[in-house]
Every structure is written in structure tokens, then in C-alpha cells.
Amino acid sequence: MRTLIKNGWIWRGEETSEEPEPEDVLIENGRIVSVGLLSGVADADVIDAAGMLVMPGLVNAHFHSPVNHMKGALPSLPLELFMLYESPANEALRPTPREAYVRTLLACLEMIRNGVTAVQDDAFFVPYPEPAIIDAVLQAYEDSGLRARVALDQSDVAEADKLPFLDQIMNDNQRRRLAVKPKVGSEQLLEMYEHLISRWHGAAGGRIRAAVSCSAPQRVTPTYAQALENLSRTHDLPFYVHILETKVQRALGVDTLSGRSLVVLADDLGILTERTNVIHAVWVDDEDLDRIARAGAVIAHNPISNLRLGSGVMKFRAIRDQGIPIALGTDEAIADDAVNMWAVAKMTGLIHNIADPDYETWPTALEVLDCLILGGHRAMRSDNVGAIAPGQTADLCLIDLDTLAFTPLNDIHRQLVYCENGSSVRLTMIDGRIVFSGGRVQTMDERTIREESRQLANDRRAGLRAAAAEAEEWNPAYRQMYLKAAAQDLGINRWVGDSVGKGME
Description:
By secondary structure, the protein is α/β, with parallel strands linked by helices.
């Protein structure tokens, strides 16, 4: 199969003061074979890209698919309280395979429409993973046409072991209940990974691949963490680890880990490597960044989620100066309330401007785009993806420059970051296959998916209400925990404002 994209502007990720000349891109069997002014190309499907920018597809480097049906459902809350309502291990929230399939497709629709060609899904399963639900999620990615890495984000320790101060706050009955370990332990979880890897790793011609996740180093036993690292090393899989997203997590190191940060804990466990995606990394210090840099790990930055949950502002410039690659993600749809990587790019380009008065340290548009595309593929451990050049996989999107976002056209990179919202995307191509064109997603019936999603969400409302009522019981203790951590002087601050932590206990 041959496709010829004609007369487009080619994005090369470089500063230029000159308006580029239109060029062509020839694609064969999912790969770019030629770029330039091409003539005499026969037997090819032709796409007229006149007036359009041809650029690599975007990468959503961190995402949780299971709560796509809950967008807008919760108020802004600190992460630890948010999770009480978002992902309780409640049997009433167990999805059917069809529900898991449809809600995954719902996010795929939004991503494909916005020019996203690849996603990393750190999928948690309520109350625990099982083959039929894993298969439903992966089948959705295969059917959608997206390039996807999927991991099983699950804990094997009791809730009481994950958080600080609760033993000082809760009553005896609450302490006993939070000390109960999950129904599914590490052996069963590893069996689920065996299913994931044997059934899905390399599916759809390599478009669908596995990853591993320990959720966070404090949420798993050392034995399970090291077993996951062995899987990661054996199969060359990205390893997803949430680390120091919140001040509560920083306080945990002081309260229960003899002052060790969670980066040090991950390093001590042997799970901080060149395959590691360090997710969030908001409350890191200089020693933490030194360790991440030495390991060769990637940091997955989720600025909208960090704001929605009040987690803080990541040290973008310090991380870049250490040479640590940064990828960008939406996090889950309920913490971003969209799966729009253009919004994430814009927030990345803005939020760090209030973290440092030295304007020369603020992110440039090209840096943001580098994180959005090449940083994402580095996190995914993708080969030959992320550039418009011969030999590269044809994961592309076409951006219409005759739109308000680019009128007048002054600087293509800055307007991509600060002006575009996804509405200028006219075509999305993955592996050389067109998945979005003519205003519609080609791989599924969008209207049917929307309608079924609404019905499934309605069917779930009683279960969600029951879970929310259960969460209310725990809310006062978790609030006290959060306020105690917020009031502590830990030597660093990632919140904006001069009243941080004062009088909060």
C-alpha cells in the first residue's frame, strides 16, 4: 500500500526564519520512504496537503483509561481524597467486559480526533484485574487503530501501608479495616501479567505492546516490585512508577521511611532504570533528580492533573538542565476532564512561567513540542517513530493552517503550543493507515460509542453513589492526614503563594 501526501509543510522540529516550501511524503507499508519534491509516483493514494502542516502524531505518555466515564464527576480535591471517590476497591464498580471496552474507545475517539497517535495506559482495575477485562481494554486499542502501551496498575499492600499519619488519626475499627491486604496478591497479579504479555505484547503488527506498573514504590511489596522489574528487563518494557506527586508522599518518607524520599526507595528497590517512567515528580529535590538522571529514566509530566488535584508545579527547568527527558500526559480523564494533548502542551508552556521570575528559564515552544512528541516516544521506548523522515513509521497528523489558530501565521511552533486546541487537525494516520479524516474517525461508529457510553454511565450511577457514600466515612481521617502533611516544613515547596501550609492543622 502506497500513500502520497502532496504539497504540505513538513514539521522538522527546528527553528526557522523562512517560510518552508511545500514538500511531499511517500509512505509504503506503514513507513515513510521519501520526503521532498516527488514526481512520477504511480499507484499511490494521494492526499492533498496544500495549506497544511504535516507533523508527527502526538503522544499521550501517561493515562489511566478505567474512569473515562467519570469526567467532570468530582470536584477538585487533593489526590489522596480524590482517590477515595475515584477508585475504591468496591465490588459495585466492577465493569463488564463490554463496559471496559466502550469506555476505553471513548478516550480513543478523543485522542484520535486531536491527532494523538500513541498512548501509554497505566490501567488500574476495580476491584482487581481479570483476563476478560484486560482483553476488553486491549481489544479497544487494537480496534481503534491507536498505538498503545498498557500496564496493570495494581497494589499488593494494605491501604494503611501507603500513607502517613493514619495510624495516629483513625479509630481502632478503621485501623483494622485499612490493614487488610487486597484480595488479589502478587502471585495472581503476575499471572495477569503473563496473560497480558503472552496474549497482547506485539499484537496488531507491534502496534499494541505491554508495559509494567507498580503504581508507586510504597504501594507494593519489594518482592512484587522486583518481579515487575524482571519482566521489564526481560521484555524491554517501560516501567510506570508514580513518584512524589504530592506533599503527602513527601511526608511519607519522613514519617515511615526514615527520611528517605520515594525516589530513593525506588532506587533501593532496583526499579529506577533507563526503562522507568517516573510519573509526576513534583515534590522531588536535587538528590532525587541526580538519581533519576543517573538512572537514565524519563519523567512523565501531567500539568493539568497536577493543577486539578492541587499537587503543585514541577521543576521543569531543573529537570531539563539535568538532561532528563520529559514526556507529557493527560493522566486520567477524571483528573484532566479531557484527553486533549494540545491543552496539556499549552499548560506546560504556561504554568512554569509563574514558578520562576527568571524568564530566560521558562519553557520555549520548541521544548514543549519536543516533550510532546520525542519525549513521549522515549518514554514508550519506541523505535523509528516521531519524525518526518525516511525509515520512520508513518504516525502523522495534518494540521490545517487556514484556521483561526494560525491566522495570521507568525510562528508555527508558538501557535501550535499556545493557539491550537485540536480543532485544526484534519487527518490522523497511524502505521500508514488513516484513522481520522473528513471530520470522522474511520475505525468506529462514533455516534454509537457516545450513545452506549451514556447508557453504561447511567447504569453505573447507583454503584458510584454507593462507593461515594463509603468514601464519606474515610474523608475526615484523610483530610486530617492531608492537612498535617501540608503544614509540615519539608524544606521544599511546590505550591504557588506565600500562605502555603500556614495554620492548616
